[in-house]
Amino acid sequence: MDLVSPGRGDLPHRLGEAVVTMRDPSGRPIPDAAVLVQQTAHAFSFGNIGFDFIDHANGSGSPGDAELAELWLDLFNTATLPFYWGGFEPDPGRPDTRRLATTAHWFADRGVALKGHPLVWHTVQPPWLLNHDTDAIERLQRERIRREVGDFAGLIDTWDAINEVVIMPVFDKEDNGITRLARERGRIAMVRLAFEEALATNPTATLLINDFDLSSAYECLLEGLLEAGIPLSAIGLQTHMHQGYWGEDAMLAMVDRFARYGLPLHLTETSLVSGELMPSHIVDLNDYQVTSWPSTPEGEARQADELVRHYGSLVAHPSVEAITYWGITDRGAWLGAPIGLVRADGSRKPAYDALHSLVKGDWWVAPTSVRTDAAGRFRLRGFAGDYSVSVPGEADRSSALRLAVGASTADLML
């Protein structure tokens, strides 16, 4: 029985193996037939932010956006879209729903899954929220969650429900309504608020808690939330490494600490620098302000090596189900850092090609021609995800297959 297999098969917890029987329209097996098998999507979430394509999706983009979009779509399958309250609703009652919905549809039409970020956060808050007392702030925050989750249900069903709760009640960089509310109500009440309203509006939503503080304080918060019965769908872990790659050992030790809660882990915000590293004495990454932060050949080689090591170690960990890289391009990148996989001029960095070689190479089943055996069967071994089986040269004769982890059988009709 012919076997279709990926470039590398050393990640058994990511692989499925199916005995596939091809049948004709009457249900009879098709023996000794040539078929073309090709993977079309990963089950694992390889994500990136979709911020760069909002204008493009709405017909007002910049030169080079189409080419950049092609690079994005050839590598990633999940887009995070920005719902920062201050930017989404700078004037009360005038949310940016239409533009974000158009952008979400643009991605969805191209087979991309979507996540909204975030529903509750103390940063990038609308100044008008400070005109209200804490009871009114809570009411407005609840209404905001119901509105966004309801307006986008069926299009965006995964949300960072609440962001950076550990620091939320003690945040002192600027006054904002959400920190006032968190200081009065407490962290657990803030998380409960976010989850209550989101689930009341969309009971099947996937809801994350997300944080950059990966210390024991986050662990204590998670333990309190689980004891309180708050239904976390997954734990979000931010890993912005502007001061240098942490290394596989440190990264996996951190992942193991959070894996013990038995929930899926999402590496929600990952970045690696392809230029000079941020000085190690900087505590808040936002405090590092420089006029120019260029990408360098040496930095790009380092970034590519570290990206392969980072993704390789995390995909090998059974608790990790999603990794979101925080930007495709250096153009307009967060903090002006050279963290993109594509230079500001649109050319690919080595990191892009290195990651592509994993996601669409080592971890991908390339188009393969096989023959069915006398019983109309062939065997498919590959990374969990979507596959197409077709008759070579006859695009109208094809069938789709969803390959799950583990062993299975499937009957397909051609």
Automatic annotation (TrEMBL):
UniProt key word Endoplasmic reticulum: no
Reactions performed catalytically: Endohydrolysis of (1->4)-beta-D-xylosidic linkages in xylans
Key word Signal present: yes
Annotated keywords: Carbohydrate metabolism, Glycosidase, Hydrolase, Polysaccharide degradation, Signal, Xylan degradation
EC number of this enzyme: 3.2.1.8
Recorded family membership: Belongs to the glycosyl hydrolase 10 (cellulase F) family.
PANTHER family (alphabetical): BETA-XYLANASE (PTHR31490:SF88), GLYCOSYL HYDROLASE (PTHR31490)
This protein's name: Beta-xylanase
